[in-house]
Amino acid sequence: MSQPMFPLGVTAVMLPQLDFDRQLAICAQLGITHYSWRPRVIAADQRDKPHNPWGRHEFDLTPTRLIDEGPRLRRQLEGAGLVSFGTVPTCNSAASDDELKQHFEGSAIVGAGRVRISPAPYPQGAFDYGDLLTSTIERYGQLVAIARSFGQKIVLETHSGSFVSSPALALNICRHFDPTDVGVIFDINNFMIEGGLKPNLAVAVIGKYIDHAHVGGALCTFGQRDELGFRQPAHEMCSLLDGGSHVPTWVRAMHEAGVHTPLVIENFSGHADNGQLLTESAQQLQAVMKTLA
């Protein structure tokens, strides 16, 4: 069977209700081939709460467990016909070398090839962008050397609220490195929340550094008014069909630029259970790909 132009993937972040066996089963059923691991420690105050993408997960994959059980988990994943594709731990570049080495080691053991390491948060008030950019680039230079020693690549996500919320901001860091060492998770959903711009421009700016895309849905909503009566910005998660970013236009922009990376699903809308959300998103993206010339 030939590989699709845009292979479909999923981040385990959006599947908190499903154990590993059920995650693999539904991915295989839907033709989803690329799986991004979510190694992290569930906060103590979340362990007795309902399943949540950023809280309690049924598949409790800690960074230590990824290392200790990685060979078995990898065999299980590959036995289901899936590709191990990246890890998305909750860490940033300010973490210690020892902590980040643990993430690179776990990724290497499961053959994921890439680890998301976010830039450290920027200050809330006024700050010198140039100085912070310089120190951030220096830090990533150190981390690239560590990642190479584990045979891994670093990826930065264009995440709302981060130092690299737009393609141009990400490029300010990435352009100092080879795309084999540092790449970008091109998060289509986050461009609606922050850093919005036209799809063809976004692709052109970051181009060769796009490692893969995250595809989800979010919609601007009416936020609360401040004490002066001004409406504050707000958003809510929704299906791919209802989001503020027109997914077919974004996928076509990538296609026309020859950027055919995996489209990794992140659907946090909450209108259905995890399996149904993944099923809907996969079918919607497959329909989009059928329209590409």
Task: Note down, in words, how this protein is organized.
This protein is an alpha/beta fold and 293 residues long. The protein is 38% helix and 17% strand. It has nine helices and ten strands. α5 runs parallel beside α7 (199-206). The longest helix has 21 residues, at 129-149. It is globular and about 55 Å long.
In short:
The protein has helices at 20-30, 63-79, 97-109, 129-149, 167-174, 188-193, 199-206, 247-256, 274-290, and strands at 8-11, 34-37, 83-87, 114-116, 153-157, 182-187, 210-215, 218-225, 231-237, 263-265. It is of the alpha/beta class.
What is the averaged pLDDT score? 95
Number of helices: 9
Strand order of the largest sheet: 3-2-1-10-7-6-5-4
Helix content: 25-40%
The radius of gyration is 19 Å
Taken from the alpha-carbon principal axes, the silhouette is globular
Head-to-tail CA distance between termini = 20 Å
Unreliable runs, pLDDT <50, ≥5 residues? Answer: none
Overall number of strands: 10
Instruction: State the major sheet.
Output: 8 strands, parallel
Beta-strand content estimate: 15-25%
